[in-house]
Each structure stands twice: as structure tokens, then as C-alpha cells.
Design goal:
By secondary structure, this protein is mainly α.
């Protein structure tokens, strides 16, 4: 089957109606049971044989260990690991290597990055002010833990869509729902109702893309022009989230943390000093609030007076726009107390400070179920132009679900083995990251206008195996990297057909994160500390100039010499080294990164501070390990490229060192294609 994009025609106007073509589309059909006794290679060989082709020979041990190590953990193999693998002649050597890599905590840091691309992860709001989200890193750490633990994918899906409803006492399940709030957000919008609708639209669009491989966002303003998704379908999906409270700081304690905190707060609030201070502050706080309220427009004052559940859309918007203007801070209360109360207030305040309130619970961005809110189809997507009210529901073209209207029901439906899209979409993403392209070349578009699968039977077999494995992502890695197809030697100069049918390994330029992390690892500077707030490596001053929020560089090299996944992710200032190597725009879900070849990449590898620093540190490391130019050349090759130099390369290297410093030689090796490509 060809890999061309679908040629879906514009759907007819004048009312939405599903057609036989819609319903018969391959991605909307149930998974087909496929015989796969020979595994992945059986499917690949069958298609190759039909074209008179076959698999290429196996890759050399040195090439294979470098390939699979970079692939699974995103760091180069050490010379010691290469030597051990090359010397091990047992039939289990490669299997042991794969298991060691999958068990490494570095695995979650590598594969978690792919997921963060999909869910548009960042640690700032974007837009003009690009304000920091101080707790966004909690979601990043959740993703890394989930991949390292091989959390079943169906649970991973459920946690992100409805973890607060299904497992409300588990911190990770609460943190997971932060997925819905990761998109850009104009916090200071003058229209707060529109701001909320923007977030709901973003959640709906991203859920369709990430979990179902559907471009649902095109149906926000009208029936989808190409796909069998109506505008009504769109708002029925959105209705699952319409009643959510979008919490930017929700407590996410464990059961023990919550119990201990509540007991401590009970003791604290029962203290007579605390209670007396609260009695003094309460009337002052209310007086200040009413004073601020009186300065608002008459319409806004009236809106605040209406009970929340009875406010109209206009009143709700007025309250959201002005609520910050009537908030009273503790500092304002303190400044408003005078006269005979002042002495007593100061004494009480000092006593309460000495007493100390219990430490606050950990918080994260998260969802929670709020009051029921009606959802309407919106004319041209404008909240001010509601049409028909809708109830939660899923696209008509897909198998229906129960009548239950909770987010749990939606999560269960998406994560169901009977859903024709979920397993297909995820195994295609895994295949894509292993081979550089998916079986379906449009990994977030499985609709009529998306690409057709090159190997449809293989795709369904993988999806069925995924479900049979208990939705184990690591089980799918094992199937893929242990196949002969994956272990082939590099194939260069073959026809497009042979490349499309996997007759040989196609070289892939690695992502910027692998280049950055490899420089640190090879130079001996990599700090493997895991988790926590993002770090700030140095960036050129001219890059930071004029940037909202700036870039607060860490003081010590060890603090920022961590893996790229921990570099602070600012929307309006992407880390320059990663940006030049095609780091995605984190305002949008990214399913496929570009693999460009540009002049700035060459200049970066020659001149960037990351490369020059790594070259100098690597030279120092080599000097400690090797004496004499011949041994230094050999050590440099083994550290940087994972192999020994050929005879001609060794001679060129020694000649280079006769004229130039070892650091310059290391920098030259960092600029070889072999360093930035996986062969």
C-alpha cells in the first residue's frame, strides 16, 4: 500500500451526514486479527519479497550498540560497554543489552521527551508576558517516572484524562491531569470567559491529536471540511471538560501527607493566639474588600453580588475580569490596622510567626470536577453565539460508548481495547521514533486526509500485541529493537521503494537533546541528578536581551549540566542550542520533528559554547587516560564515535595533533556527520 497522503475531497455543505466511505475508512475499523508467527520480520520480508528485495546484512556490533543505546536512553555507549558487547559472543548478549537499557533511569528521560513534544509541555504561559508556571515540572517528572516504571499505557491515558476522578488519593494521578493545562494561556486576558474557552478548545484539540490521531480542531467553527467529524461532535467531546476546574495550584499530597497536614492545621487553628488574630483581621479584610468593590463599575458590583450558580455569561465574565481587583492581601490588612488594636495585633502577629504554620502541601497544575456547566455548539466558535446545547459524547464515526458523561467514561472509552485508534496511534508513534518515520507517516492524523499505512497488517499486529502485553510500552520496544529489520546494516543509495519497505537501515540525524547530552557525557561533565525544577544553562547575552522573563542562569556548572529534558522550557525563549537542531514550537502539539540541515547547525557545532567547553573537557579527560598522540587519537574515537579509528583516520589524527591542540581535535570529531547521525 502506498504511503501518500489521503486525497479526501471536500465534504458536501448543507448538513452533516456520515457516508459509507467515512465508515469504511481503515483507521475506523476494528483491529484485525493478524497471524504474525514470524513477528515484525515476517511482515517486512513478505512485502520485500513481493518486490524482489530482501533485508540487508546485520549491522556490526559497534554500530548496533551505538544505535540501540542512543535510541533507548539518548546517551552514547561508553567504551567499556562497547568492548563488553563486542567480546560477548553469546546468543543472549544483545537481549541482555536491551534489558539493561530499558531498566536504566535514563530511558524515561529519553522517551519522556517524545511525549512532552506531543502534549506541548512548557514551564511558562507564553504570549506577551510569558509568566513562569512554578509547578509545571511536576508533570514532566510524572512522565519520566511513568516511562521508567513501564506504566501500562491504558492507565497512562486514564490518569491524564481523569486521574482525579479515578484515583483521587494518588498524587501522580492528580499531577497527570496537568496534561490538560499545558497549553499557552493568556492569564491577563481582558476577556476571562474567552480565556477559559481557549483552554477548553486546546484540551479538546490536543486530546484528539495525541490519543486518537484525529484533527478535531478543524471542527471548532464548522463541520470538518475533510474528516467525518461534525461541529456537534467537537463540542460533545469538549463537554466532558466543560465542568472542570482548571487549577493552576492544586494540592497533590499523598494520603499520609494529607493526614499529617490536616492534623497539624487543626492544632494550629485551634491555638488561641491564631484564633484571636483571625478575629481581629476578619472585619478589616472585609472592609477593605468592600472598599475595593465600590470602585468597580456598577455592572461589575452587581455581578459580584449575584450567587455564582446564577450568574449569566456576561456576569461571569465581569467577575473573572475583576476578581483580582477585590482581593485583599495580608500586607494590606496589616497596614490598615491602627489605634488601640495595633499593639495587640503586633504582639499576636509575632506570636503566630514564632508558632509557625504547617508547611504547605505540594501543589501542581491539575484538573478537578467543578459545578456542572452547559455546553453549546458555538456559531463560528464564538462563545457569545451559542446554538444547540449538547451533552458529552464521542465522534459518531467511532464505536459508541456508555451513556455515562464523566471524564472517567471518556478516559475508559479512549483506553479501551475496542477503540480502533488508541493502540494503533501509540504503536505507530513508537515505530516512528525507532525508524525515523511511522508506518503511518502522519502520526497525529489517522483520518481520511492522513497518510495511508505502508504496512497495514503489521500495524494491526503491533497494536494487538500492545494490548496483549498489558499495554506495555517496553514490551513494544523489545519487539522492535530485537527484530532483524531494526538490526540491519546501513543502506545508502537504495531506491525510494527499498527505503520505504525497510530494506536496510536509513541513517538518522539525532535530535538536539542527544547532541547536547552526548557532549556532556563524553566530556565527563554530565550531572545525572533527576527531577525537580528546570535548570538554566548559560545562553548568549544577545539572545536574552529583550526577552520577557529573562533567563536566570544557575550559578554552578554542576547545577545546569544536566540532561536536556531538565532545561527550563520557556515558550518565548527556546534554549538556543536545541532550537537550532529543530526543537519544536511548544505552543503546539508536535508529532514529528523536522530533521533539517542548515548552516546554523554547522556554525553551532563549530563555535557554540557547549561544543568548545565539551571539547576542552574531553581533551583533559583523554590526557588523563592516554599518553602519546596515537593513543590519544584512539581514545578520542572510542569516546566520541564509539569505535576505534581506521588506519587512515589514525594517521590523519596524529598528523592533526602535530599541528593543533587535542581540544581542537576533539572539536573536529564533534563536527563529523558520524557524531550527529545514527548509522
Amino acid at each position: 500500500m502506498d504511503n501518500s497522503l489521503g486525497q479526501a475531497k471536500l465534504r458536501p455543505k448543507g448538513g452533516f451526514e456520515l457516508t459509507a466511505v467515512d465508515r469504511s475508512h481503515w483507521a475506523f475499523q476494528a483491529l484485525r486479527p493478524t497471524a504474525g508467527e514470524e513477528g515484525i520480520d515476517g511482515f517486512i520480508l513478505a512485502d520485500l519479497a513481493a518486490e524482489g528485495l530482501g533485508l540487508s546484512p546485520a549491522a556490526s556490533p559497534e554500530a548496533l550498540i551505538r544505535r540501540v543505546t542512543l535510541d533507548l536512553i539518548g546517551l552514547p555507549p561508553t567504551p567499556e560497554a562497547v568492548d563488553a558487547f563486542v567480546r560477548d559472543s553469546s546468543t543472549k548478549a544483545y537481549e541482555k543489552l536491551v534489558e539493561d537499557l530499558l531498566a536504566s533511569p535514563r530511558y524515561g528521560e529519553r522517551w519522556g521527551r517524545h511525549w512532552l513534544d506531543l502534549v506541548r509541555f512548557a514551564e511558562t504561559d507564553g504570549f506577551e508576558h510569558d509568566a513562569v508556571r512554578p509547578h509545571a515540572w511536576q508533570y514532566r517528572d510524572y512522565v519520566i517516572r511513568s516511562f521508567n516504571d513501564d506504566k501500562p499505557y491504558d492507565r497512562f491515558v486514564r490518569e491524564q484524562l481523569a486521574g482525579d476522578e479515578i484515583w483521587p488519593e494518588q498524587p501522580d494521578a492528580l499531577i497527570a491531569t496537568g496534561y490538560a493545562l499545558l497549553g499557552p494561556d493568556m492569564v491577563d486576558s481582558s476577556d476571562q470567559v474567552q480565556r477559559r474557552h481557549n483552554t477548553l478548545n486546546d484540551i479538546t484539540d490536543t486530546t484528539g491529536l495525541v490519543f486518537l490521531g484525529l484533527t478535531m480542531g478543524c471542527a471548532r467553527c464548522h463541520d470538518h471540511k475533510f474528516e467525518p467529524i461534525s461541529q456537534r461532535d467537537y463540542y460533545q467531546m469538549q463537554a466532558y471538560f466543560s465542568s472542570c476546574s482548571l487549577d493552576r495550584e492544586r494540592p497533590v499530597p499523598s494520603v499520609v501527607q494529607r493526614r499529617d497536614y490536616e492534623l497539624a492545621m487543626q492544632r494550629y487553628e485551634a491555638n488561641e493566639v491564631v484564633q484571636e488574630l483571625a478575629r481581629i483581621e476578619a472585619p478589616v479584610r472585609e472592609r477593605l474588600r468592600l472598599k475595593k468593590l465600590s470602585k468597580l463599575s456598577p455592572e461589575a458590583q452587581k455581578a459580584h453580588a449575584v450567587p455564582e450558580e446564577k450568574r449569566s455569561a456576561e456576569e461571569q465574565n465581569l467577575v473573572l475580569e475583576t476578581v483580582a481587583k477585590v482581593k485583599v492581601s495580608s500586607k494590606e490588612v496589616e497596614g490598615a490596622i491602627s489605634g488601640e488594636l495595633r499593639g495587640r495585633y503586633d504582639a499576636l502577629h509575632a506570636a503566630v510567626s514564632r508558632l509557625g504554620a504547617p508547611p504547605k502541601l505540594p501543589v501542581a497544575m491539575a484538573l478537578s470536577t467543578g459545578k456542572a456547566q452547559p455546553t453549546f455548539v458555538l456559531r463560528r466558535g464564538e462563545y457569545s453565539m451559542p446554538l444547540d446545547e449538547v451533552v458529552p459524547g464521542t465522534p459518531q464515526v467511532l464505536p459508541s460508548m456508555t451513556a455515562e458523561v464523566s471524564r472517567k467514561a471518556l478516559a475508559d472509552w479512549i483506553a479501551s481495547p475496542s477503540n480502533p485508534l488508541t493502540a494503533r496511534v501509540m504503536v505507530n508513534r513508537l515505530w516512528q521514533h525507532h525508524f525515523g518515520r511511522g508506518i503511518v507517516a502522519s502520526p497525529s492524523d489517522f483520518g481520511l486526509n492522513g497518510a495511508r499505512p505502508t504496512h497495514p497488517e503489521l500495524l494491526d499486529w503491533l497494536a494487538n500485541e500492545f494490548i496483549r502485553s498489558g499495554w506495555s510500552v517496553k514490551a513494544m520496544h523489545r519487539l522492535i529493537v530485537k527484530s532483524r529489520t531494526y538490526q540491519q546494516a546501513m543502506s545508502v543509495g537504495e531506491s525510494e521503494k527499498s527505503r520505504r519497505l525497510y530494506a536496510g537501515w536509513q541513517p538518522l540525524r539525532v535530535e538536539g537533546e542527544i547532541i547536547h547530552d552526548s557532549l556532556l557525557a563524553i566530556s565527563g561533565k554530565l550531572n545525572l541528578a533527576m527531577y525537580g525544577p528546570g535548570v538554566f544553562p548559560p545562553v548568549p547575552k544577545e539572545v536574552v536581551a529583550g526577552s520577557k522573563g529573562g533567563w536566570n542562569q544557575n550559578d554552578r556548572e554542576k547545577e545546569y549540566s544536566r540532561r536536556s529534558i531538565y532545561i527550563f522550557s520557556r515558550r518565548n525563549l527556546r534554549f538556543p542550542f536545541l532550537e537550532v537542531f529543530d526543537a519544536p514550537d511548544n505552543n503546539l502539539s508536535c508529532s514529528v520533528r523536522e530533521r533539517s540541515t542548515t548552516a546554523p547547525q554547522a556554525l553551532t557545532l563549530l563555535n557554540a559554547m557547549e561544543v568548545t567547553a565539551a571539547a576542552e573537557a574531553t581533551a583533559e579527560r583523554i590526557s588523563r587516560l592516554a599518553v602519546g598522540s596515537a593513543e590519544q587519537v584512539r581514545t578520542a574515537y572510542r569516546l566520541i564515535l564509539g569505535r576505534a579509528p581506521r588506519e587512515d583516520e589514525a594517521a590523519i589524527g596524529q598528523e592533526f595533533l602535530n599541528e593543533s591542540p587535542l581540544a581542537e581535535y576533539c572539536r573536529a570529531l564533534f563536527n563529523l556527520n558520524e557524531f550527529v547521525y545514527v548509522d
